[in-house]
User: Fold Carboxypeptidase from Bifidobacterium tissieri.
Amino acid sequence: MGTMPEKKPKTARRVFTLILAYIMFCVAGGVVASGFLLPAVMGANAMTKSLTSSLKAEDIDFDLADLPQQSRMYASDGTTVLATFYEQNRIIVPLKNISDYMQKAVVAREDHRFWDHSGIDPQGIARAFVQTYVKKGDTQGGSTLTQQYVKNILIDQALEDNDPIEAYHAQEETIARKLREMLISVELEKKYSKQEILQGYLNIAQFGKSVYGVETAARHYFSKSASELNLVESATIAAITKNPANYDPTVNPTESEKQRNITLDLMSQWGFVDKSETDAAKKIPIADTLHVQDVSVGCQAAGNAAYFCDYAIRQIENSKVFGETLKERRQLIRQGGLNIYTTLDVNAQNSAWTAVRDNLPEDDPSGYENILAAIRPGTGEVLALAQNRTYDVNGAPGTTRTSVNYAVDYKDGGGSGFQVGSTWKPINFAAWINAGNSANEPLATSMHYSYRTIPDANGSGVFDVQNSGGGTVNPETPLQALNQSHNTTQVSMAQRIGLKSIADMAKTMGYHRADGTDITTYNPSMVIGTEPSSPLTMANVYATIAGNGVACTPIALTKVTDSAGKNYKVPSADCHQAISSEVAQTTAYAMNLNVTQGVAKDAQLSNGRKTFAKTGTSEQTQLATSGFVPQVAAFALITNAENSGVSLKGTINGVYRSSWYGADIALPTWKEFMENYLNSANIPQNNDYGNPDPNMIRTSGGSSSSTTTKKRSSSSTRSNSTNSNSGTSGTTGTTGETTDGQ
Assistant:
């Protein structure tokens, strides 16, 4: 045991000498794969026996396109970057897009004989051998730039294979590892040109913390492309690779400047640049050269588009087109160099972000959420998603930081949904006229409806319902009921056409619960908006009305390509004619009357633009407004998402009210969004939409006299219903529009 410390250095020197002799023999004789001295080398140390199966490069992938690269998400304009995703922040570029200064700087710093050797440099090895083993100075490896490229490739390949042990062996300081690198390097230079190897190295090398590849480095430190790097900038970046943590100019500017100057001296010493140029460059303070651009990662860095970003990413994570398993899909996002093109409209997103905060600030003492979703009719394209919260994957309950995207379904990162109150009533109206009935037919109403008189109702007993403040209007037409947001007439309509007909119409128009299921248990309270839904789903239902009856599945992606140019099939909007144009336009006509003559008059947009809107309140636990113009549909919702079912009351945004309604905060949010977006995007007016079918608004006789006329609507229930409304956002019992019109 006592002799081991003395024996190990001798053995190491002997092995190194034999390796050196072998390599020099190969190079001098022009033989790359000579086996003449290899047995002697392999027999010199038992440790090298394990290398016999790994001395070839056939199983090593040197394709640059397979390197881990950052993925980028773009807005609908195709140029605005919303977010980047990566494990190694890298952008691959060809050598022709890297400045000549940068190429010379890295060769001067790392391997000035790069253009002359065949993958290994006997002079460098000899120099390192003398320094390390004869003079016993600091350990030097004598690695060529080609060897460093091989080392980086081996490390990356091991990490991609999730093999940390192999990654360790790929960088440990042993003769076995060096021998492997040397032999692979020689073989590599047989297959690739010097330019290709230099290109590979510049794209794989680390140039700082989370900065991989020269293009990313150029953008990060100098806010420019690698093709634009000048002498000073190139020397700065080239020096970092020696010690990425300590030579980063944003971390250690003093040491970085020192190392930059060393690189400049080497460039002139080896004849790459005239000394007068490098002397002038050394006088420039490094602080004067930096124009740092933060390298942000993930949706958390996407600013006001963070929730949309999260929604879009989940479309990839939920699709097997991008990988068989969730793990594979996430790895593709972080490493695949994807270009993800989305439907997000920058003007719409900015308008939505501003509107939800103007009308209910994030730090409002009420703690309530303001949520908005917008969609383009006839396309399924989601234009904006916003809520008065800060996107934070580490957010905690009771704070304003959360990763829960309340605007979307549960599978897309949202919650369990929210009751939508009277914003449901256009669905009832569409089902009514679609069944061949007239919007102007007077209906007898009541405040007490037996379950057995309502087709398809599940349960038994009596459904008690009334308009706001008590009472009902008897008789009343469906058109009048929609304009005044009365509840009792909704149940009378259901008595005629059945609850299943209404549920089918909702599904046809794009409705589903936030958990992704359809309505299969029919409770009479559904006609006044007790079914839970996400804001995006309701915006999409209204988009069907706005789109002349064309229904689409919401989409966030328009195109996804990888670094090799492969196109992935993105989820389809599946746009189709869901309801007739006549039903869509007649329903739109009724909603416009709700603005011009009914309770949603405050939703009227400026300059006489024809406006279609409906407000809603669900027992004051949710306040909502939904509406559209032909080019955009949006849904705004105020709620207490973390304590669903608790009534919204007291002071909100500095205003005290004993009761809050859909017209109070949700309507101003919706209107501000619409006004700002329509103006900023220069969307022209289209006042020709909303022409009713004469047969659907025919007068069918009878008079409309009111037993009790009220402006607002509310409901209470008394039944033995088997439908407990499970899956709603925390409310209990059967609820509906308690108020509407403010």
User: Anything to note?
Assistant: Confidence is low (pLDDT under 50) at residues 1-18, 21-58, 136-141, 701-742. The chain has 22 helices and 22 strands.
